[in-house]
Design goal:
Blueprint lengths: L1 E8 L3 H7 L8 E6 L18 H10 L3 E7 L6 H15 L3 E4 L7 H8 L5 E2 L21 H9 L2 E2 L10 H9 L13 H4 L6 H10 L4 H6 L3 H6 L16 E14 L5 E15 L2 E5 L17
Parallel strand pairs: 1-2, 2-3, 3-4, 4-5, 5-6
Antiparallel strand pairs: 7-8, 8-9
Length: 300
């Protein structure tokens, strides 16, 4: 399962469903953007296009919508953008995710006054300078961040191409600020830069001291709970057989953050096999195949 976070808004979600969701073998869920035109650049600054009522109606219309997203707003009226996003989430009964854009608005006010328990703050290890980071100039996690975590705010990695910095992530993890969910923010820039893919991001946290079980939890079951889809992210009786099989490789590895800085590591998660709804869709080393010696000389 992949979750698109805010690509489409209420005016173009049907197009996104037709062109992407309905054509994908991967299960695609989505946060709908509070901006009607979605994540299309300049219109993301248009508060007049942030319609809580239409956004909620769209969310209630499509089963694939699991949340509301606000991102990239850089103006002074940021409180109104959050208010409208939360209103849409309340109307639809779903969480919201915030990418706090620019302009360095107050994350303490965001966490403690504007967001609800179960709402999600992504790019938690973002270094700034256009966003207020969760750590201070000495690398100490700001005390109110732990208060927000206790309140129920969920912190998401959202690695991306510019939103993950070891100098913030490693001290935060050492001080106990772990991500509720480990995610990629995958796009052409991030997949060809330090992020690479989900397994690589998971490997970073494995080498930052999290246990394998904790890394898996924060990549599967926790994200499923965050989007209120507890039918996913687990392998209980009756669950759909969406399964990843992987190796833990031991060696000398390097992992790069979104600023180009490297962390050395000794372990790496390597995906061997994946199943979607019980069917094999990826098999790196042919583990599900018969040996070539079993093949007929002249196949029909």
């Amino acid at each position: 399962t992949a979750v698109d976070v805010g690509g489409a808004g209420w005016t173009n979600f049907q197009h996104f469903k037709d062109q992407v969701i309905d054509r994908s073998q991967t299960r695609i869920l989505a946060f709908v953007n509070i901006v009607g035109d979605g994540m299309s650049g300049l219109p993301e600054q248009n508060i007049n296009d942030m319609d809580p009522r239409m956004t909620a109606l769209t969310a209630n219309r499509f089963n694939e919508i699991v949340g509301v997203k606000i991102a990239h707003y850089r103006g002074d009226n940021w409180r109104e953008t959050i208010r409208r996003t939360v209103e849409a989430g309340e109307r639809a009964g779903i969480p919201v995710m915030v990418d706090f854009g620019g302009g360095r608005p107050s994350i303490e006010e965001l966490f403690m006054e504007l967001l609800r328990p179960g709402d999600i703050f992504t790019h938690v290890y973002h270094p700034g300078p256009h966003k207020e980071p969760v750590v201070d100039a000495n690398g100490r996690v700001k005390p109110f961040v732990f208060d927000a975590e206790e309140k129920g705010i969920l912190f998401d990695v959202g690695h991306g191409g510019g939103s993950f910095y070891f100098a913030h992530a490693i001290p935060s993890v050492e001080q106990g600020l772990l991500p509720y969910s480990i995610s990629t923010d995958i796009h052409t820039g991030s997949m060809n830069d330090g992020m690479k893919d989900q397994a690589n991001v998971m490997s970073k946290f494995l080498n930052m001291g999290l246990s394998l079980q904790d890394v898996i939890l924060r990549s599967t079951w926790n994200p499923a709970k965050a989007i209120q889809r507890e039918d996913l992210g687990q392998l209980g009786v009756g669950a759909e057989a969406d399964i990843a099989v992987f190796n833990i490789l031991n060696g000398n590895y390097g992992f790069v953050d979104s600023r180009g800085y490297k962390m050395d590591g000794s372990q790496k998660i390597d995906i061997e096999l994946t199943l979607r709804a019980g069917e094999i869709v990826w098999d790196l080393n042919g583990r599900s195949s018969e040996n070539w010696e079993e093949a007929p000389v002249n196949p029909e």
